[in-house]
Amino acid sequence: MNSLYREEILDHYQHPHHYGELENFTHEIKGYNRSCGDEIIWQLRIEQGQIIDLRFQARGCVLSIAGASMLSEKLKGRFWREWPQIKEEWEKEHRGRFNPARERCWFLASRTLDKLKLDHAQN
Questions:
Q1: Which long-range contacts (CB under 8 A, 24 or more apart) does 6-14 make?
Q2: Cα dihedral 108/24/77/41 (nearest 10)
Q3: Among residues 75, 19, 21, 70, which one has the least CA distance to residue 46?
Q4: In this structure, are residues 115 and 29 in contact, taking their beta carbons and an 8 Å threshold?
């Protein structure tokens, strides 16, 4: 892992983007990494299929918090139907940068978002 990437991760850990509670959220999803105990809660406000706003709360290591922060930047304003493509690009960009145990921490945010199911009216 190069030093610039390390610095970006550390910055997102120390100053996470979209961190905290969201008022008037329409969806809440919780995730847990059994191997290390990291936890994440996503709160999203989705209107007509678009992610209008989002926040996350997390308790965990540098990678789980930084990963959620960096992923949140890619989601705000996007349409939920784009999630499969966003996730594919996200995983391709970051897969192999960490050892397998640490990848579980990094991808906790995206694995948790996979739990979100919208009905066709909301999509």
A1: 8/66, 8/70, 9/62, 9/63, 9/66, 9/70, 10/62, 10/66, 12/65, 12/66, 12/69, 12/70, 13/62, 13/65, 13/66, 13/69
A2: 0
A3: 75
A4: yes
Identify the CA nearest to 100 among candidates 42, 41, 33: 33
Domain boundaries, the chain: 3-113
If we measure between CA atoms, which residue out of 70, 117, 116, 61 comes closest to residue 91? 70
Q: Which CATH class is domain 3-113?
A: alpha beta
Tell me: the pLDDT tens digits for 14-48? Answer: 999 999 999 999 999 999 988 889 999 999 999 99
Asked whether the whole model's pTM tops 0.85, one would answer: yes
Query: Would you say how long the chain is, in residues?
Result: 123
